[in-house]
Each structure stands twice: as C-alpha cells, then as structure tokens.
Design goal:
Number of strands: 3
Largest sheet: 3 strands, antiparallel
Structural class: mainly alpha
Distance between the termini: 36 Å
Shape: globular
Strand content: under 5%
Helix content: 55-70%
Number of helices: 16
Radius of gyration: 21 Å
Bound molecules: s-citryldethia Coenzyme A
CATH superfamily of the largest domain: Citrate Synthase, domain 1
C-alpha cells in the first residue's frame, strides 16, 4: 500500500536529527534546538552535526578557522559567474556554481571520509560567498573579498551589503542559520541521501539537494511569504486578503508541515526575531501583519507557522533581497546535507524503493503501419 508522499515512512536510521511532530521538538545529535538557538553558534552546530558531539575549544577554533580560510571562490569560477545572464535565478546560480566547484576541487577524486569532510567544509564556507558574489555581480558591483575576522553570518552580511552588520542583525542571522541547519529526512536531505547512496561525489549529491530545496513547497516558501505580505501592504488588509485566499482554496505559504502537528519550534525564535528587528528598524508592520496572518490561518485551518513563515520578515528586515531568501536557507542546510551524506557513505546501501505498478498488462505489440 503506497503512502502518498512517503508520509510517515521511515527510510533511514540516523543519529543526526530527530523531529518530534507531536510534541513540536527538534533535536540535533541529542541537543534541543531551543538550547542551541539560545546558547550556540552556527559554526559550532556545523561541528555538532558532522562529528556527533559539541567541540572542545580547540576543535571549535579549528573548524572556525577552516571555514574562514575556505570562503574564496576560484577566480575561474568568478569569471564564469560574470557570464551568467544578470536575471538568472539565484538558486539556479547556486546549483550551477556547486557543479563548477567540483571541477576545481583538489579532492574531487578522493572519496575518503577526510577528503569528504574537507569538501563539506569548503562548500559550507563557499555557499555564502556564492550568494553574495552573485548579488554583487548581477548588480554590477565589485565582488567583496570575504573577511576572516567575522563569523559566517556576519561575513555574509558584510559581503552582501558592503558594510559591517550591527550586532542584532549578525546575531539574528547566526541564529536563523542554526534553526535551518538540519531537519531529518526533509525532501532536499532525502534527495542528497539517495544520490550519495549511489556513491556519487558529494558535489553531485549537494546539487540534487539544491534543486529539491528550490521548490515552493519546500525551501522556496519563504520568498512567497514576503511577496504575500508586500501585496497585503498593511495590517488592516490582512483579514480580507487571507479570507479571499481561503475562498479560492489557495494555500498560505509558510504554514503547515508534513511532520509537525503543533508549532514548529523554530518558528518561536524567528517570530521573536521578527519582532525585535521590527522595533530596531522602526517598522513593525511586517511582524504585526505576520501575527494577524498566523492567527487567521490557525483559526480557520488549525495550521501552525513553519520555519519559512517568520524567516521571511526576518530576512526582509535584514535588508536581504527577496530572491536570496531560499539561497540563505541553503547556506544553512548545506551543513545538514553534508552530515547526512557523510552518514550515508559511512554505512551505505543503495536506496532503491519499489513502485506499485498500476499500468495495463499483457498488451500485444501492434506495428506502426497498423496503428
Ligand atoms: C519546509 O520536511 C521538512 O522538514 C521541511 C522543512 C525543513 O526544515 O526542511 O521544515 C522546511 O519545507 C517547510 C514547509 C514550507 N512549505 C510551505 O510553507 C508551503 C505551504 N505548505 C503546504 O504546501 C504543506 O503544508 C506542506 C507541503 C508543507 C505539507 O504538505 P502535506 O503534508 O502534503 O499536507 P497536505 O498538502 O496534504 O495538506 C493537508 C491539508 C490539506 O487540506 P485538504 O485538501 O485535505 O482539505 O492541509 C491543507 C491542505 O489543503 N493545507 C493547507 C496548507 N498546508 C496544508 N491549507 C492552506 N495553506 C497551507 N499552507
């Protein structure tokens, strides 16, 4: 009996992440997301996801230095990026550049664990550079050289905006990256594991994940949320707009979840950030509108906000271009994808499910002249 969308099908054993949909709990390698969001950093979470425990000070410094030392892109790749049409979709740019990077990666032919960790480190370090460099190139600006004295989140904002981010912005983005880092067998991570299970290279498995995350039912939802809020315009317009969406049986992006049947724990932190950033930038309407939408969708559909709903207003108030919202999701999830790819390689069996055949049977072939 086929479970549509493989709903509730357990397709792997993993120590990386647990999503408890009933209780609304998210655990990375045994640590609750609330503790990590309030006390950890994205670079520390990368280490936790990959090595299964919190790093010592020395280990933390080492991975942080490795991530900072590997942010640059090969000059040839930047040259090719300058040939892309300026209207190229940033997720397609990310997907394409990751494919290019495998051609310049000195470890490309080495599929050993140490080499794969080096490649995962380079990709995690380079994703923000790809996204920020693309925004600079498409806007005719000089690509900003990454700074090694800033953590991954702060350096991304610096490369994107050309100025040092304020403390709240840098911290907010760092926490958002922690919240998005992994989520068990979500569609893009499952795509990465299916690819890795054929023993293809890590770059190919990541390209499969990027293409999957791009979909509006998955990572692409956050961009649709902010476009909806901009269309609504003001808090007073929320109710009629949402009511009309329901009348037209339209899905409200940023709500619902295949696993969570209560509040997505990540939304709690992003909702708080949206309010704080609204107060800091003197424009709280995006938060206020979000709260109204949230109340109406819950009242009418009993659905909760997921991770994409409040990340939309958070990224918008951080001054990030809308079509970079999903690439930022990928900038974080590359760490989770890499963790799952490494785990798949370590104890692999080809992932090859069956299909329930529903087609015709025993047909006789009729030649073309007689059809
Ligand atoms: C992410 O898997 C992960 O872990 C993903 C993620 C991660 O960290 O990797 O958490 C990130 O992708 C979050 C989800 C982002 N996507 C969206 O916000 C898009 C809007 N959400 C929906 O498309 C939907 O809720 C899904 C895709 C998230 C889940 O879909 P399901 O489990 O297949 O549920 P469904 O579409 O079968 O909906 C069940 C019912 C339906 O009602 P009926 O047709 O049965 O009457 O709920 C309704 C749906 O119409 N419904 C919605 C809705 N989501 C579900 N109605 C209005 N608005 C919505 N958003």
């Amino acid at each position: 009996m086929v479970k549509a969308g493989l709903e509730d099908v357990v397709a792997a054993s993993s120590t990386i992440c647990d999503v408890n949909g009933k209780e609304g709990r998210l655990i990375y390698q045994g640590y609750d997301i609330h503790d990590l969001a309030q006390q950890s950093t994205f670079e520390e979470v990368v280490y936790l996801l990959w090595f299964g425990r919190l790093p010592t000070k020395v280990e933390q410094e080492a991975i942080s230095n490795e991530l900072r030392a590997n942010r640059r892109l090969p000059d040839e790749v930047l040259k090719i990026m300058r040939l892309f049409p300026k209207t190229a979709n940033p997720m397609e740019v990310l997907r394409t550049v990751v494919s290019l990077l495998s051609m310049w990666d000195l470890d490309a032919a080495d599929d050993g664990r140490e080499a794969n960790i080096r490649k995962a480190t380079r990709l995690t370090a380079q994703f923000p550079t790809i996204v920020a460099s693309w925004d600079n190139i498409r806007n005719g600006r000089q690509a900003v050289t990454p700074r090694e004295d800033l953590n991954l989140a702060a350096n991304f904002l610096y490369m994107l905006q050309g100025t040092m981010p304020d403390e709240l912005s840098a911290t907010s983005l760092d926490i958002a990256l922690i919240l998005h880092a992994d989520h068990e067998l979500n569609a893009s991570t499952f795509a990465a594991r299916v690819a890795a299970a054929t023993l293809t290279d890590i770059h190919s498995a990541v390209v499969a994940a990027i293409g999957t995350l791009k979909g509006p039912l998955h990572g692409g939802a956050n961009q649709e949320v902010i476009k909806m809020l901009i269309k609504i315009g003001e808090p007073a317009n929320v109710e009629p707009y949402i009511k009309r969406m329901f009348e037209e049986h339209k899905k409200v992006m940023g709500f619902g979840h295949r696993v969570y049947k209560t509040e997505d724990p990540r939304a709690w932190h992003l909702r708080k950030m949206s309010q704080e950033l609204g107060v800091q930038c003197g424009e709280t309407k995006w938060y206020e509108m979000s709260r109204k939408v949230e109340e109406l969708v819950f009242q009418d559909k009993g659905l909760y906000a997921n991770v994409d709903f409040y990340s939309a207003s958070v990224y918008y108030m951080l001054g990030i271009p809308i079509d970079l919202f999903t690439p930022i999701f990928a900038m974080s999830r590359i760490s989770g994808w890499a963790a799952h790819i490494l785990e798949q390689y370590a104890n692999n069996r080809l992932i090859r499910p069956r299909a329930e055949y529903m087609g015709p049977a025993n047909l006789s072939y009729v030649s073309l002249d007689n059809r």
